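job 3f2a | input accepted
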Amino acid sequence: MLVAIDGPAGAGKSTVARAVARELHFTYLDSGAMYRCVALLWLADTSRPPAELAAAASIELSADTSAGEERVTLDGEDVTAAIRTPEVSEAASRVAADQQVRTALVAKQRELLAGGDWVAEGRDIGTVVAPGAEVKVFLTADAGERARRRAAELSADAATVMAEQAMRDERDATRAHSPLRPAPGAITIDTTGQSVAQVVELIAALARAARG
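job 3f2a | predicted structure (212 res):
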């Protein structure tokens, strides 16, 4: 079974998806981490096309059970912390607009999701990567709430995060390839004012109902 969770930055996708995966005993896939890996490579070598970097990259996502979190390995190096900087976040949004990058990473994601039970989150899981997912959810939240969450997560200025978020939202929603939007049949959940536990309970219930 696959639970696909899409939505904009700051809507709570990563936190919710991790918790849903733990609740259901599914494996968690953070597709955004894969784009961040390509962005990290590109920032280090802008002479090479991002698509070339994406195709050649060896990206592994694994759970660190001792720390209760996921680890991201890029070409044999742990980049879990390195891919979470604001600079990489901005670059990830840019490389994600490249159709060839998306094609390369979608193929890698589909390979991962081919077997087993997964909770996958990103911006095009339900629309492009796995339109046949048994459960499709689109998480959203008030723009101000999303910016506050991101600012707290990154220890950054809320106004700066809000401005960057607006630009990223516009780019994600209007890009020619795989624009950010709810998948057909997706259930939209507004997380504004809701606790993580409340949202997790709702999505877990949807998954259990779908499984029968």
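job 3f2a | The longest helix spans residues 158-174.
job 3f2a | closed
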